[in-house]
């Protein structure tokens, strides 16, 4: 059963093992945190096991430094039949100052699956607040734009050996 939780924030401390030679957190580590937050949010909304179908629009706005407190916030902005579109923003701060700044944002699409790994229905989200309606409409526009990008990418997949 869904507990209907629409958003959540996961927190991490950037450790020395997370950083690259320049002392900044690896993009891959940030993407892992994003995936974890998207999964937890989708599982909490749907009450089901979920898998990542798509992650995109990722923008690394500012670096995260070792020792930073990292907050990965996930929020459901659209539900399809089996998919949940989750907006993610990543903020970081020096924990001594708690001066949060945006470092990354993106959209992740999670799909709920049943015990056989097949997509399964998720509870519908119906926005009522103007801000939520705007986010939902933006998710729909992005979905249509992705269809065009997907068709364009077919040319690349075609030549994969
Ligand atoms: C996600 C997956 C189950 C979808 O399978 P599928 O055969 O395309 O299933 P469907 O056509 O029924 O699509 C299921 C949902 O996924 C969505 N979806 C599928 N491919 C998508 C893509 N490239 N981008 C965005 N959404 C996508 C569909 O729109 C659909 O949503 P809806 O039910 O809300 O309309 C399948 O592609 C898969 O198993 N992928 C691997 C996932 C994985 O291993 N993730 C870990 C990270 S590597």
UniProtKB/TrEMBL annotation:
The keyword Hydrolase applies. Residues 4-116 form the HotDog ACOT-type domain. One of its GO terms (molecular function) is long-chain fatty acyl-CoA hydrolase activity. The keyword Hydrolase applies. Keywords: Hydrolase. SUPFAM superfamilies: Thioesterase/thiol ester dehydrase-isomerase. Pfam families: 4HBT. GO terms for biological process: acyl-CoA metabolic process. Transmembrane segments: none annotated. InterPro entries: Cytosol_ACT, HOTDOG_ACOT, HotDog_dom_sf, Thioestr_dom. This is Putative hydrolase. It comes from Vibrio caribbeanicus ATCC BAA-2122. Belongs to the acyl coenzyme A hydrolase family. Gene3D superfamilies: Hotdog Thioesterase. One of its GO terms (cellular component) is cytosol.
């Amino acid at each position: 059963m869904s507990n209907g939780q629409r958003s959540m924030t996961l927190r991490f401390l950037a450790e020395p093992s997370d950083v690259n030679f320049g002392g900044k957190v690896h993009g891959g580590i940030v993407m892992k945190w994003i995936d974890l937050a998207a999964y937890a949010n989708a599982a909490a909304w749907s009450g089901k096991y979920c898998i990542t179908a798509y992650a995109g629009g990722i923008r690394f706005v500012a670096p995260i430094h070792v020792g930073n407190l990292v907050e990965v916030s996930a929020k459901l902005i659209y539900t399809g039949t089996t998919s949940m579109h989750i907006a993610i923003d990543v903020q970081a701060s020096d924990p001594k100052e708690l001066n949060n700044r945006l470092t990354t944002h993106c959209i992740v699409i999670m799909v709920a699956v049943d015990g056989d790994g097949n997509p399964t229905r998720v509870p519908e989200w119906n926005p009522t607040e103007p801000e939520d309606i705007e986010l939902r409409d933006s998710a729909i526009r992005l979905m249509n734009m992705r269809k065009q990008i997907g068709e364009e990418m077919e040319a690349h997949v075609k030549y994969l050996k």
